[in-house]
Write a structure and sequence with these properties.
Number of domains of chain A: 1
CATH architecture of chain C: Orthogonal Bundle
Chains: A mainly alpha, B alpha/beta, C mainly alpha
Helix content of chain A: 55-70%
CATH class of chain C: Mainly Alpha
Order of helices and strands of chain A: HHHHHHHHHHHHHH
Radius of gyration of chain C: 24 Å
CATH superfamily of chain C: MetI-like
Oligomer: heterotrimer
Distance between the termini of chain A: 27 Å
CATH class of chain A: Mainly Alpha
Shape of chain A: globular
Number of strands of chain A: 0
Strand content of chain C: under 5%
Order of helices and strands of chain C: HHHHHHHHHHHHHHH
CATH superfamily of chain A: MetI-like
Largest sheet of chain C: none
Largest interface: A-C, 112 and 116 residues
Radius of gyration of chain A: 23 Å
CATH topology of chain A: MetI-like fold
Chain lengths: 292, 435, 303
């Protein structure tokens, strides 16, 4: 019985397996091959990004480039207006994601551990947000933004972005929070800790992998969000990266090489951030915190 | 459309939708608080205008420069916002949301036919008849183009582009297949295709991912089998589609796929890719408009002299081709419609059109530059002066157009016989007539 | 058994509700959520009972006509079937693959950070690029997939994958799986950190094989994660819109229409906002119904 129940005690002893020095060689080989296959479609994107547009137009996407160039990146930087869109997307990310994760964590904590009244109703309501097709809400959202004078403004995006991120974040976080053993929280309460202190010093640190996961997923969603940005923003000065990528389209033909370069410019930072953040999910960096 | 105010109020009181009420009221002009707030982009007699367009990166600066000139002459301040992309893309969605939200642009660019029609039908766009009289646009603009911007008798827009479609081909491909001159009849076109296939070349580079592009072939086949008069009546639903001429067109359409005169699996190919195949040497020709010279041939660093353009032979008089119109509309709630109309009049001046580098202007005296775009110039002087029939994705509302494309797709895949396809089309058109 | 009953007692003691403190935690998120999502959604709901065209100022109330028209719309039937197939395939495949990857990448493999990056990368790409890339790969004449088939002598299998009704949905689902594996992988990786390494060490000492450890330690330990991953994936699959819209535009014909795309086409392209909204309502109701078991499991005293 113990083996079945123990996993519910989420915490504490987590650490990476000691010294992975050897071992797993065959697994490594297999995984490398699978990974190469997995990433291979992306080769097309990269090749497209490093060939001249004339070569692409003259020979099509599936030919080997006659020459290579990095000029596309410089051009794409200007066409996509990245100096501006980067700044705008980054501002949104910084304003929105931590705030969104934090308020979602609060609600998740209330649902998972504070036995909030109408918890089930709240859960269904939260699910409602996940299931509603965004498209039918854009006109009312636009009207709200207009009434508040917040069209064509980054601030106007924060409300809808928070709202549409909350359901997903709450569901994931409450699922993780539920796994925290009540004994620890109870012990803290007996020691005189209030709900806030328990939340900030026990619940959040113990849930670092879940928080980082949600943070990554939400950051990616925010970085790539297209519909609300498209509908609410007008001027070039306020556009975000996904809207800026439209600049590579034309009515009759697309600047495919520029677009490929632009996409790489757009996603590389998020991939770098992911590479660093994933260590917080799995790297055992949470071990210190779990002593709480 | 008649008992709405009551129901809307009821609904608003149900949902307590103050914000939505404000928005809808702003559009309708019937709400209580619309008087206080300017409903369109700008207030009455305002010197501020907003123009919304879908110019891409290559032309947006030209537009901004011209608009600046207008501003300098008139003491106005005009904001130009652009959202590049095609008719199937996001531009109409954005425009619609802004209009519904009560913050629409004063002036917007739009395609003609059934893409522009809903805006006029919903009375979001202004009836421009009085400005046509004031500025004498009827005399300056191509009349067929004006028709493309006239909806149920309402002049809802000012056209400035008429795109005529011709067959653009690679001379190298024709040489390789031993073809000396473009075809003069549909029979000759078929012979030409057979020669190309024999030489190992895919004849027509067309794709139907969004329905459009490949329909350019079908509408041509329909023009050939039905002739101008019947073709027009079919498009307006005045004649039944369940008839031999239509069956013939579908039969020929299937034949093109079966004989490999089209690329394998053409229905799912992205036209943006396939249209360039004649430049890339993967197909002999395509059916497209003059933009292909700059954006296809010259973008690939190839010489216009190595390519050519001919009108698809129909065997009828007049020898028509497919075409579509683009123009501008004015917001029915524009704060200063006179100024907005003045801006449009400025845009359709031949000098402005030339400065905008419009290659197929609806305005006489704004032909493409002969030296830089020889083929476009040649086309504008020959076929470009001929009458055209409305391209099928603008001849029908989107819903009927999509059903039409679905029928075409089924025919190409052999899932529907040409005879059944004609019957199905008649059902589609009948359902449209009723609504 | 002592272990089993201990937490029960603890929870019983505080079955009282959290009261104001709990609402203090819940309110910020709930207010934003209600204001920017629930309210706009509900205010749109009304249009499903009207014949609104999505652009005009006026409309007529038509009661339930839009809903009663749904079953006789052949595209709705096609879309519902496609949604069902889509849900099964794009839930099962990514979840299973994501779980396998998470377990492997949590164990003894070299280059784990790089591998984790690679399997997650597709999820970060903008959909425009995903659609173009797969469109090029599937190109019947020049695409890499048919080229590979011909290279290994399977010429007969080379076909216009996206260009015929029979294969278009399947071809789209392959791209969806590619795109979506990263999400369950990430959640499972996080959940795996919650399983004590001591368990594995004890099991190894007892002579349990890796396979036994997986079934008796890993899988039960991931139970809460399974719930949330599957619930989110199912909902995601019901809502599918962007990928199909970008890859096939619902075609050829209507072969790959799903409820999400059909809703979009009606609201925005066909000027049938009332009818399209009714479809949106149906999508929401079905997805909510599917979520009932999950919510019940999460709100029970102890799952």
């Amino acid at each position: 019985m113990t083996t079945v129940l123990m996993p519910e005690a989420t915490i504490a002893t987590t650490h990476t397996p000691p010294k992975k020095a050897k071992g797993g060689l065959s697994t490594t080989v297999v995984m490398t091959l699978v990974a190469l296959l997995w990433i291979s479609p992306l080769v097309l994107l990269i090749i497209t990004a490093v060939r001249p547009l004339s070569d692409f137009v003259a020979n099509g996407p599936l030919s080997w480039p006659s020459t290579f160039t990095f000029q596309n990146f410089a051009d794409a930087w200007n066409i996509g207006n990245f100096a501006t869109t980067y700044r705008n997307s980054l501002i949104l990310l910084i304003l929105k994601v931590p705030l969104g994760v934090f308020v979602s964590a609060m609600l998740a904590y209330a649902l998972a551990k504070l036995r909030i009244r109408f918890g089930r109703t709240i859960m269904y309501t939260v699910f409602l947000g996940l299931t509603i097709p965004i498209y039918i809400t854009i006109v009312p959202v636009f009207v709200m933004a207009r009434s508040a004078g917040l069209t064509d403004s980054l601030i106007g995006l924060i409300g809808p972005y928070l709202a549409f991120g909350i359901p997903f974040e709450v569901l994931v976080l409450q699922s993780f929070f539920r796994q925290l053993p009540d004994e620890i929280l109870e012990a803290a309460r007996i020691d005189g800790a209030g709900a806030w202190r328990i939340f900030l010093t026990i619940v959040l640190p113990l849930s670092a992998p879940a928080l980082v996961t949600v943070f990554i997923l939400d950051a990616v969603a925010t970085w790539n969000e297209f519909l609300f940005a498209l509908i609410l923003l007008n001027s070039d000065a306020h556009k975000t990266i996904p809207v800026g990528l439209l600049n590579f389209q034309g009515q009759f033909s697309n600047n495919n090489t520029g677009l490929a370069a632009g996409i790489l410019i757009a996603v590389v930072p998020i991939l770098i951030a992911y590479t660093f953040l994933q260590r917080w999910i799995v790297g055992g960096l949470t071990a210190g915190a779990s002593k709480g | 459309m008649n008992d709405s105010p009551l129901n809307r109020r009821k609904f608003l009181s149900l949902t307590g939708g103050a914000a939505l009420a404000a928005g809808l009221a702003a559009c309708t002009g019937t709400g209580d608080d619309s008087a206080s707030a300017p409903a369109g982009g700008s207030g009455n007699g305002s010197k501020e205008l907003r123009l919304f367009t879908y110019e891409d990166n290559s032309t947006i600066d030209l537009v901004k420069a011209q608009v600046k000139q207008f501003d300098a002459q008139n003491g106005t301040t005009t904001t130009v916002d652009s959202l590049p992309g095609s008719g199937a893309a996001v531009y109409p969605d954005k425009l619609r949301t802004e209009l519904l939200g009560g913050k629409g642009p004063d002036v917007w660019r739009i395609w003609g036919g059934q893409i522009g029609a809903p805006f006029v039908k919903a009375k979001q766009a202004m009836d421009l008849s009085s400005y046509y009289t004031k500025f004498g646009w009827d005399a300056k603009l191509n009349q067929a183009a004006v028709q493309g911007m006239t909806f149920d008798g309402v002049k809802g827009g000012v056209p400035f582009i008429v795109n005529g479609l011709g067959s653009w081909y690679s001379k190298a491909a024709f040489d390789k297949a031993g073809i000396s001159a473009p075809p003069k009849s549909y029979a000759e076109l078929e012979e030409m295709n057979a020669k190309l296939v024999a030489a190992g070349i895919t004849p027509a580079g067309l794709g139907g991912k969004y329905g459009w592009d490949i329909m350019r072939l079908f509408e041509y086949l329909l023009e050939v089998s039905a002739g101008p008069e019947l073709h027009d009546k079919l498009l307006t639903g005045d004649e039944s589609w369940d008839r031999p001429e239509v069956v013939t067109a579908f039969t020929n359409f299937k034949k093109w796929q079966d004989q490999k005169w089209l690329p394998n699996g053409a229905v799912a190919l992205d036209p943006a890719d396939v249209e360039l195949w004649y430049v890339q040497g993967k197909a002999a020709y395509t059916i497209t408009g003059s933009w292909t010279e700059a954006q296809g041939i010259q973008a690939a660093n190839k010489k216009s002299a190595d390519f050519g353009v001919f009108t698809l032979p129909t065997g009828h008089t007049p020898e028509r081709h497919s075409g579509f119109v683009e123009g501008y509309m004015i917001n029915a709630k524009a704060g200063n419609p006179d100024m907005a109309a003045a801006l449009l009049d400025f845009i359709v001046k031949p000098e402005t059109q030339k400065a905008l580098k419009v290659t197929s202007s609806a305005i006489t005296g704004a032909e493409p530059d002969k030296a830089t775009l020889p083929l476009s110039y040649e086309y504008s002087q020959s076929a470009g002066k001929q009458p055209f029939y409305t391209i099928q994705d603008q001849a029908f509302p989107k819903k009927q157009a999509d059903q039409y494309f679905a029928v075409q797709s089924d025919v190409l895949q052999g899932k529907t016989s040409p005879a059944d396809a004609a019957k199905k089309m008649q059902d589609v058109i009948k359902a449209w007539d009723k609504s | 058994m002592a272990v089993l009953t201990a937490p029960r007692k603890a929870t019983r003691k505080k079955t009282r509700h959290g009261g104001l403190v709990a609402w203090g935690f819940a309110l910020p998120a709930l207010l934003v959520y209600a204001g920017f999502l629930v309210y706009p959604a509900l205010s749109s709901l009304w249009f499903s009972f009207t014949d609104w065209d999505g652009l005009s100022a006026g409309y007529n109330v038509v009661g339930l006509d839009n809903y009663t028209a749904l079953p006789s719309d052949p595209v709705v039937r096609q879309a519902a079937l496609n949604n069902l197939i889509w849900a099964v395939v794009t839930v099962v495949a990514p979840v299973v693959l994501g779980l396998v990857l998470a377990v492997i990448l949590n164990g003894k493999v070299r280059g784990k950070p790089v591998l984790r990056l690679i399997f997650y990368t597709p999820a970060v790409l903008p959909l425009v690029s995903v659609a173009s890339i797969w469109g090029w790969l599937y190109n019947p004449e020049y695409g890499a997939i048919n080229a590979a088939l011909r290279a290994v002598g399977l010429d007969g299998l080379a076909q216009p994958w996206l260009g015929q009704d029979s294969t278009a949905l399947g071809a789209t689902m392959v791209a969806a799986i590619w795109l979506r594996v990263g999400f369950p992988m990430l959640l499972y990786l996080a959940a795996l950190q919650g399983i004590s390494a001591d368990l594995y060490e004890a099991a190894t000492v007892d002579g349990a094989t890796r396979w036994q450890q997986f079934w008796h330690i890993t899988m039960p330990g991931l139970k809460p994660a399974h719930y949330v991953v599957i619930a989110l994936s199912v909902i995601d699959s019901f809502k599918v819109f962007d990928l199909i819209y970008a890859m096939t535009y619902g075609g050829p014909g209507t072969a790959t229409q799903v409820m999400g795309t059909w809703m979009y086409f009606n609201v925005f392209q066909y000027n049938q906002a009332g009818y399209g909204t009714a479809i949106a309502v149906v999508i929401t109701v079905v997805a909510i119904a599917v979520s009932i078991p999950y919510v019940r499991s999460q709100t029970k005293e102890h799952a």
